[in-house]
Design goal:
- It contains six helices and 17 strands.
- It is globular, with a radius of gyration of 18 Å.
- The chain folds into two domains: 116 residues, 2,3-Dihydroxybiphenyl 1,2-Dioxygenase, domain 1 (Roll); 155 residues, Roll (2,3-Dihydroxybiphenyl 1,2-Dioxygenase, domain 1), CATH 3.10.180.
- Helices cover 19% and strands 35% of the residues.
- The longest helix is centred in the first third of the chain and has 14 residues.
- The chain is an alpha/beta fold.
- The strands form two sheets. Strands 14-15-16-13-9-12-11-10-17 form a nine-stranded mixed beta sheet. Strands 2-3-4-1-5-8-7-6 form an eight-stranded mixed beta sheet.
- One of its GO terms (molecular function) is ferrous iron binding.
- This is Metapyrocatechase.
- Its EC number is 1.13.11.2.
């Protein structure tokens, strides 16, 4: 049952060199810088997103993800979800409005997998970048790089998948869109949605808590993914794998790394879901084909390079 979450709203990523990271996410991925703060954080958004930011770059001495945030429909929903989290046994931390520039108050919690998430109801509304809300043109003419359309999802690696599933499904209102089961029928990967997308957040079983696999940005077409691959080579950006197709979700994809070693994905296509769809199931024995449909074998970096 839906609990009032709308969409992934932002992710804060730790970067070793803020200016190098900005060049990567602005000039290569194609996001737009919208602000900076006194902590040195840089705020960016994709051009179709109507809120002020979806990516925050946080200068740090180690890479990884600080937190991922989801926007809820209103303040009353935020209050209720805080009560639901506490009743489930999940402590929450209150982050005041303005701690992220342009964002209202947030409630923060740590999932059993070890990852930090937050919920919020308000963020400064800036509208889409470069197009008006009345008689808009098809797209802005000054977009850079891959021209990312939106921040789409994150993939996390961690343990306690069953408890994390319970929290996200029964407390926050996600539903299971796709899964990977081992030979004993235990879930070792879960792709969760609060929308009609293939997933809004995903978790893969890993013995160490709180590891970050990638942040993903949506492109419109397969030709855009191929163009992204050209740009990756033109800029000598470190590539993981692709362009290729997933078996899971059937999206067309390419993976690469930012200068700090955080993995990015850009993709197009993919399955759509509704909450009454039965989850798609893959066997762990077929994980190679599930992740990389064409090669049908796993790229070792995909499993082991985490931040």
């Amino acid at each position: 049952m839906r609990k009032g979450l709308m969409r992934p709203g932002h992710v804060q990523i730790r970067v070793l060199d803020a200016e190098a990271a900005l060049k990567h996410y602005r000039d290569l991925v194609g996001l737009i810088e919208t602000d900076r703060d006194e902590q040195g954080r840089i705020y960016l958004k994709a051009w179709t997103e109507v809120d002020k930011f979806s990516l925050v770059l946080n200068p740090s001495d180690e890479p990884g993800m600080d937190f991922m945030g989801f926007k809820v429909v209103d303040e009353a929903t935020l209050v209720q979800l805080e009560q639901d989290l506490l009743a489930w046994g999940c402590p929450v931390e209150h982050i005041p409005a303005g701690e992220l520039r342009g964002c209202g108050r947030r409630i923060r919690f740590v999932a059993p997998s070890g990852h930090t998430f937050e919920l919020y109801a308000e963020k400064e509304y800036t509208g889409k970048w470069g197009v008006t809300e009345v008689n808009p043109e098809a797209w802005p003419m000054d977009l850079k790089g891959m021209r990312a359309v939106r921040f789409d999802h994150c993939l996390m690696y961690g343990d306690e998948l069953a408890a994390t599933y319970d929290l996200f499904v029964n407390v926050l209102g996600f539903y299971l869109a796709e899964q990977v089961l081992d030979e004993n029928g235990d879930r070792i990967a879960q792709f969760l949605s609060i929308s009609t997308k293939a997933h809004d957040v995903a978790f893969i079983m890993h013995p160490e808590k709180g590891k970050f696999h990638h942040a993903s940005f949506f492109l419109e077409t397969w030709e855009d993914v191929l163009r992204a691959a050209d740009l990756i080579s033109m800029t000598d950006t470190s590539i993981d794998i692709g362009p290729t197709r997933h078996g899971l979700t059937h999206g067309k994809t390419i993976y690469f790394f930012d200068p700090s070693g955080n993995r990015n994905e850009v993709f197009c296509g993919g399955d759509y879901n509704y909450p009454d769809h039965k989850p798609v199931t893959w066997a762990a024995a077929d994980l190679g084909k599930a992740i990389f449909y064409h090669d049908r074998q796993l790229n070792e970096r995909f499993l082991t390079v985490l931040t």
